[in-house]
Amino acid sequence: MKAGIVGLPNVGKSTLFNCLSNAKAQSANFPFCTIEPNIGVVNVPDPRLEKLESLVNPERVLPATVEIVDIAGLVKGASKGEGLGNQFLGNIRETDAILHVLRCFDNDNIVHVDGNVNPIRDKETIDMELQLKDLETVDKKLEKVKRAAKTGNKEAQKEEAVLLKLKAGLEAGKSVRALEFTEDELEEYVNPAQLITGKPVLYVCNVDEDSAVSGNAYVDLVKEAVKDENAEVLVLAVGTEADINELDDYEERQMFLSDIGLDEPGSAKLIRSAYKLLNQQTYFTAGVKEVRAWTINVGATAPQAAGVIHTDFEKGFIRAEVIGYEDYITYGSEAKVKEAGKMRVEGKGYTVKDGDVMHFLFNV
Q: Which pLDDT belongs to residue 268?
């Protein structure tokens, strides 16, 4: 599962990507410096993992990860191939969620592609380009489906109705995620179309250091503009995060954060938000060899969770021994949890809860 960072040129995308992944994407004061998408695999910060480590004292600890893709800046006309539009839009299509970076700070030394700072206009520019690209996709599908629908094909007629609804919404300037469909329509027709504006989105307001805690007037405008979108807004001082990232000493980083009023780096909140945006959650395995966080989709069953470790675990699943995270911390060890009768045995129908500590029994 991948989250793609998008936005206009010079809004802080590559700097943010560098903060998240510690990779060094070229960050320069001109458009199109990130031509190939940069991909980083980022550890998901999780204090629960540290607590389990302190109790188990394993040989190694492996956190959950999320893949972040830095996609070059879109410009007006990208949907028609302006700039490097087609390539960038193709890169966005391959991601599962969008981190939309909006410039919410003034700085005369950093050129704005449209001449002045206006995050709402910037958001609308990107939205319109993505909507136009989706409209192109829907129109192509409609051409094919209409022919079949005219012959009386009931399935084609259902699909045509959904596509016409998508077309009307996009032409009205609405993103697919803002339109309402039944579960069946989503599953059968909308999701398989992989429309860009149907992907979940997180708006990242890139602010100056003084606005890192409470935001500013630009952020307020963004929050008001997206209130009907069912989207989260995150405030992040990307330049400041980059400065903190340069410090090697943990204590120095904490002092820097404390000085500006933050209890943890904003990038940590962003990574967790991206993980959630991708509909992911974590379960743990805990033993002396390793304590590990495993990534599963929200709603995954015990066999599906086992399959993340190895496909044989899912095929030959017998049962799962499950300890709730809070019980593990309260009693301090697997043995004590068992003594207290708090370990549960769950079967194939069990839906895994975020934070479960699990052990699988299987036979192949």
A: 85
pLDDT in tens, 260-269: 888 888 888 8
Integer Cα distance of 24 and 106 in angstroms: 25
DSSP states of 254-298 as a string? HHHHHHTT-SS-HHHHHHHHHHHHTTEEEEEEE-SSEEEEEEEET
Mapped onto helix, strand or coil, the DSSP state of residue 150 is helix
Nearest to 201 by CA among 278, 294, 105, 98: 98
Does residue 350 have a pLDDT over 90? yes
Is 50 exceeded by the pLDDT of residue 28?
no
Amino acid at 270: L
Q: How far apart are CA 133 and CA 79, in angstroms?
A: 5
- Provide the strand spans (E) within 55-164: 60-62, 65-70, 97-103
Measured from the Cβ of residue 227, the count of other Cβ atoms closer than 10 Å reads 10
Residue 59 to residue 42: CA distance in whole angstroms: 21
Dist CA 324 CA 327 (whole Å): 5
Sheet of 60-62: strand order equals 60-62, 290-297, 280-286, 357-362, 317-323, 344-346
Q: What is the mean pLDDT of residues 280-285?
A: 96
What is the tally of helices (H) and strands (E) in the chain? 14, 12
Show the beta-strand stretches assigned E in 167-229. 201-206
pLDDT at residue 30, as a whole number = 40
pLDDT of residue 77: 64
Residue 196: other Cβ atoms inside 10 A: 22
